[in-house]
Amino acid sequence: MTSTSARELEHPQCGEIRLEAVLHALSDPMRLQIVRYLATLGRDGEAPCSAIDLVVTKSTSTHHFRVLREAGVICQIYQGTAKMNRLRREDLDELFPGLLGTILDADAAQCRRLGDGH
Amino acid sequence: MTSTSARELEHPQCGEIRLEAVLHALSDPMRLQIVRYLATLGRDGEAPCSAIDLVVTKSTSTHHFRVLREAGVICQIYQGTAKMNRLRREDLDELFPGLLGTILDADAAQCRRLGDGH
Question: Domain named HTH arsR-type: which ranges (chains A, B) (predicted)?
Answer without folding.
Answer: 11-107
